[in-house]
């Protein structure tokens, strides 16, 4: 683990693996930085820079100490500070909420390129009825933390359902840590529900937007909407891959990333 202090605002902590151009991996809602471990070996031509998102293992105050409107802004500032801290011309690779953070950070920070897998942006027709954050918060207030996290898993990670969710969770090593992150996920979802995608995203860097056919429909649509809002974007959709594409199909995703970055 390496660490550096930025301009007095926050401490940046990250792991760095390998040599080459820095490729910054930004994880999503329920996934810790270890989410990227299957992908990093497939992109061994780059120097993998793997931070923890604020509130997900760093020394920063938890998002539960601030308002939903401030969460995305703080995470964007964290990424911008990280970009300034590493040597070289960084590339940002984000998944879900990390993809949204990568794109927003690139609107005001010079990066070589951005890769965004299913950015966590709600299309307007979904946002009007979005209430996941409220449902989770109510369950947590009633002492039902596990049930709160299950609602997130059912709606975002496995929208087509799992035959025996409890049995699946019992075999999932990340489950206890996910329960501990319940409040952070509530704030993250509130910020997603309030986010409005502009008609145009002022990102000068070339951007690759990725999606899978087997994830939630709203995230597939949001990926296309984000692609349309970017001035220099390429869109690729993977058949038979879900929202967890980078961990689920790392070689497939890495191959597309390599092609994009080599152009």
Automatic annotation (TrEMBL):
Q: Does the keyword Nucleus apply?
A: no
Hydrolase as a keyword of this entry, yes or no, is yes
Q: Which GO terms describe its molecular function?
A: hydrolase activity
* InterPro entries for this protein: AB_hydrolase_1, AB_hydrolase_fold
Q: Any idea where the AB hydrolase-1 domain is?
A: 23-255
Keyword list (alphabetical) reads: Hydrolase
- One short Pfam name that applies is Abhydrolase_6
Name listed for the protein in its UniProt record = Alpha/beta hydrolase
Naturally occurring in which organism (per UniProt): Haloarcula terrestris
């Amino acid at each position: 683990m390496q660490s550096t202090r930025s301009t007095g605002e926050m401490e940046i902590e990250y792991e760095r693996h390998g040599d080459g151009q820095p490729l910054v991996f930004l994880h999503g809602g329920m996934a810790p930085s270890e989410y990227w471990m299957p992908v990093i070996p497939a992109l061994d031509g780059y120097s993998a820079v793997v931070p923890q998102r604020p509130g997900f293992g760093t020394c920063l105050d938890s998002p539960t100490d601030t308002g939903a409107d401030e969460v995305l802004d703080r995470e964007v500032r964290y990424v911008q500070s990280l970009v300034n801290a590493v040597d070289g011309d960084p590339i940002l690779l984000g998944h879900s909420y990390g993809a949204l953070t990568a794109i927003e950070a690139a609107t005001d920070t010079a990066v070589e390129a951005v890769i965004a897998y299913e950015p966590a942006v709600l299309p307007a027709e979904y946002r009007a009825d979005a209430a996941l954050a409220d449902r989770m918060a109510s369950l947590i207030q009633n002492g039902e933390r596990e049930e709160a996290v299950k609602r997130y898993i059912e709606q975002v990670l496995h929208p087509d359902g799992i035959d025996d969710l409890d049995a699946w969770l019992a075999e999932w090593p990340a489950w206890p840590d996910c329960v501990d992150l319940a409040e952070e996920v509530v704030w993250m979802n509130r910020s997603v529900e309030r986010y409005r995608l502009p008609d145009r995203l002022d990102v000068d860097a070339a951007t690759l937007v990725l999606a899978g056919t087997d994830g939630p429909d709203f995230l597939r649509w949001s990926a296309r909407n984000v692609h349309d809002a970017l001035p220099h974007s390429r869109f690729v959709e993977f058949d038979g891959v879900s929202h967890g594409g980078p961990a689920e199909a790392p070689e497939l995703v890495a191959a597309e990333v390599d092609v994009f970055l080599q152009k």
